[in-house]
Design a protein that fits this description.
The protein has 280 residues and is an alpha+beta fold. Helix content is 32%, strand content 24%. The protein contains six helices and 15 strands. The strands form four sheets. The protein has a five-stranded antiparallel β-sheet with strand order 8-7-9-14-15, sandwiched between helices. Strands 1, 2, 4 and 5 form a four-stranded antiparallel β-sheet that branches. Strand 4 and strand 5 form a beta hairpin.
Length: 280
Amino acid sequence: MRRHQLDIQLKTPAQVAKMREAGLVVHAALARMREAVAPGVSTADLDAIAEQVIRDAGAVPSFKGYHGYPATICSSVNEQIVHAIPSPAQVLREGDLISIDCGAILDGWHGDSAITVPVGDVRPGLLKMAAAAEDAMWAGIAAAARGAASGRGRLTDISYAVESAVRKAGRYGIVDGYGGHGIGTEMHQDPHVLNHGRPGRGPRLVPGLCLAIEPMITEGSPRTAELADGWTVVTRDGSIAAHVEHTMALLEDGVWVLTAIDGGRARLGDLVTSAEAASL
């Protein structure tokens, strides 16, 4: 059997700057939805907010119509991990945990990001899990930046960093079969980025590489099932999950987190490219 030949598209700094504009649209939509999350709000309400923010910015939702997907966001609540379809019937309740995934296309370039948000007062354990997913994402992004700077970095250095951060944080399940990806003029490009694995393998981490890094972890088993709608992925044991994501670009002088308002500066410090500072 022939192995799949990866088609990795490296971007120029000018193209990355265009992706940054799409990333900022996604950031704005997620920020508005974060503010709106509360008991009594439906996932369809959040979807409407996202679509309005995206279209008001002159952009187009990445997800809507993608392989027939019917909505602007994926709104995964509690045991739903990813790809849950918003619905007026799904109303948030006190103590829920919701992961919101959102993408936008602006001038042909994609941004993609996800956040996990508590609904009202939630169990401390859920907040800890959400923070663990967030920390793991940033660990993966930092590993990419350091690997590119050294000239020796490989794709699975990101996977290893994500897994190591999750394992350090607690006994969480790391979801298999879903992960990060290349991104640019398409929402999903090569390479696929696993959230676990040994370091030092796969394509080199080089300037121009743009990736979406997205850990998905659970309080229990990492085993998943897909619901009859053909989209929603849930935990088989009913345990609650968290999912976060940022789009990042590697440039000659560092990393640029395109869907973070500060480019990643607060979490990554000097690993962030000077292009980020010039854009603020």
